[in-house]
């Protein structure tokens, strides 16, 4: 491949100022960017749900649960910028608004007024497992196009999500 060919950006339809040169194909950029867009929407949704449960926690274990969820929310939020910037690094675009998140998220919101601590933690266990599954599927898309850099980020985030699932599961189902 010549350097001239390599300079062609596959960011079809994008304004010229958003074109980032990449050796990935147009199909690769489209597929990976869309995968990252959906993942970012899910991560924002989970971040806000975790914060909401942190804010609305109550009961005898308030302090433990409140602190655990804050710690997890911080880790989840830390994923957002690298996901968005990964899309831009390969010449794709990413989410632009709260409306965009709502349109792309697959993890569901929870606007329940009176969720119990147990219900909150159980829901986060399920969401965390779901996010892990979503990231494994995203890794397969990356493998298909040999995008090892995105795959490598996903491997770390899968490990972190499994840690969150472990902590949440032990907290809600652990036996003395
Ligand atoms: Fe807080």
Describe the structure.
The chain has 176 residues and is mostly helical. The chain has a single domain (26-173), classed as Ferritin. It is 70% helix and 0% strand. It has six helices and no strands. It has helices at residues 3-7, 26-55, 62-89, 98-104, 117-144, 148-173. Helix 2 (26-55) packs antiparallel against helix 3 and helix 5 (117-144) runs antiparallel to helix 6 (148-173). The longest helix has 30 residues, at 26-55. The radius of gyration is 18 Å and the shape is elongated. Mean pLDDT is 92; it is low at 1-10. The structure holds fe (ii) ion. Fe (ii) ion is lined by residues 54, 70.
Task: Give a quick set of tags describing it.
176 residues, disordered N terminus, Ferritin, 6 helices, binds fe (ii) ion, mainly alpha
Order of helices and strands: HHHHHH
- Strand content range: under 5%
Mean pLDDT: 92
- Provide the structure class: mainly alpha
Can you identify the CATH superfamily? Ferritin, core subunit, four-helix bundle
Count the strands?
Answer: 0
Query: Which value, in Å, is the CA radius of gyration?
Result: 18 Å
Low-confidence stretches: 1-10
Number of helices: 6
Ligand inventory reads: fe (ii) ion
State the CATH class: Mainly Alpha
**Globular, elongated, flat, extended or rod-shaped: what is the shape?**
elongated
CATH architecture: Up-down Bundle
**Major β-sheet profile:** none
What do we call the CATH topology?
Ferritin
Q: How many domains, as an integer? A: 1
Helix-residue proportion: over 70%
Between the first and last Cα atoms, what is the distance in angstroms?
62 Å
């Amino acid at each position: 491949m010549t350097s001239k060919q390599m300079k062609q950006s596959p960011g079809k339809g994008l304004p010229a100022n958003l074109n980032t040169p990449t050796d990935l194909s147009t199909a690769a950029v489209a597929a990976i960017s869309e995968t990252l867009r959906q993942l970012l929407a899910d991560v924002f949704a989970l971040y806000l749900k975790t914060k909401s449960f942190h804010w609305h926690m109550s009961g005898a274990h308030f302090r433990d649960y409140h602190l655990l969820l804050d710690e997890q929310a911080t880790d989840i939020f830390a994923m957002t910028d690298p996901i968005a910037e990964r899309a831009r690094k390969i010449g794709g675009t990413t989410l632009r608004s709260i409306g965009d998140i709502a349109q792309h998220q697959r993890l569901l919101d929870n606007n329940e007024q009176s969720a119990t601590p147990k219900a909150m933690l159980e829901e986060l266990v399920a969401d965390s497992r779901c996010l892990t599954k979503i990231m494994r599927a995203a890794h397969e898309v990356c493998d298909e196009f040999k995008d090892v850099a995105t795959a490598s980020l996903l491997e770390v985030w899968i490990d972190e999500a499994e840690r969150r699932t472990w902590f949440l599961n032990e907290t809600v189902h652990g036996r003395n």
